[in-house]
From TrEMBL, chain A:
This is TonB protein C-terminal.
Automatic annotation (TrEMBL), chain B:
Residues 1-18 form the signal peptide. Pfam families: TPR_8 (PF13181). This is Tetratricopeptide repeat-containing protein. SUPFAM superfamilies: TPR-like. The keyword Cell cycle does not apply. It comes from Pontibacter ummariensis. The lineage of its organism: Bacteria, Pseudomonadati, Bacteroidota, Cytophagia, Cytophagales.
Amino acid sequence: MQVGDIYFNSKIDDPDFKVCDDNNVLQYYNFGNGIQYEGEKLAINKYFIGELKSKGLKKDTGYITIRFIVNCEGRLGRFRVQEMGNDFNEKEFSSDLKNQLLNLTKGMSGWMVGEHQGKSYDYYQYLTFKVEGGSLVEIMP
Amino acid sequence: MRYLLIILMLSFPTLTFSQPNCNFYKIDSTENDPCYQACLLATEAEGGQGSRKSQGLFDKAIELCPSLDYAYYEKSVPYLKRGDLITWKKLIDKAVALNPTGRLGYRGWCRYQFVKDYKGAIQDIEKLDSLVKYDIGYSQNGDYHLNIVKALCYKAIGQKEKAISIIENQLQQDNYSPLPYDFLHLGVLKMEMGYTDEALKDLQKSIQLNSYLADSYYYLGLIYKKAGQYKSFKENMEKAKALYLKGYKRLDSYTEPLDKVYLADIQAELNG
């Protein structure tokens, strides 16, 4: 068991999403390649800035983190959300913003399979969205 | 499979941490001192970073010696790296409260690198500076002096003149040797502020220090482009692309560095 492990929850997770080895899901940084996405981090920024509909959103400020697994076939699943204010305490964002970010994350198609020495691995990835006044200002990591 | 996982974890990069010298706790005590025992537990924590076993050993160390900031600090790290900023902050705050001069610089750096909490990072670095009479030190990954980190934070919140001033001041300090990205950031800042001639010199210095970095050539190319020197523009962009494709680019296993250039940026300039 590891900090940040995400276990299957039949109430919220897609039963068709499988990991190759539940006992050996790595972290994205274990590969030493930084963000492994087609078009690099630039493509992630463009995707969210282009797709997020910010008009009419509540003027929320803080951070929304979405953590998930990229499996050994490059498919995504087991999404979990953490919402945090600038004071590093939990807070609740408007469901509109949260759901948009979650659905956009689920719809990402460029995550690469984690590979090391010719073998494919499942890995944990996260995206943290820094939000100011309802606008997306930065995406981490 | 577990054996393979251990090999993988040893093979891949992880942040490195300086461990405390546990003998410190024996100076006025004995080997039975709970803080000495706790220190041994924390420094010998096994099972891999973030594992239940290692986190449990940190918990035990904290129970034995609640003032052992190192245990809080180490326990916090996997939460930071895995995106749980709420838990990370609670733990690292305890480490900072127990040992401000030892942990403020680290927390400030993390607020910059992982959280983009620029104002918080500035507060931590400035607080550290106010508490010590010695050099405040470097970022955890060794890329920057903490004063350069502070400058990058000021840049990120829009105070670019202040950022330039801080970097220039740091570069003028006795006994300070420029690190590989100091002149890159300074050159980019000056380019953004329209101080083209100075930016050109700084980026050339960046290349003198590290000629294998695509980013410096890219920004140099932009300056030549603005000056209408298209031959130099093209040469630098081509150089940037060639280096990038060979892997000579800004790369951090955890986060994306400020002013990092991407292949699509370079290609867009070449496509004109």
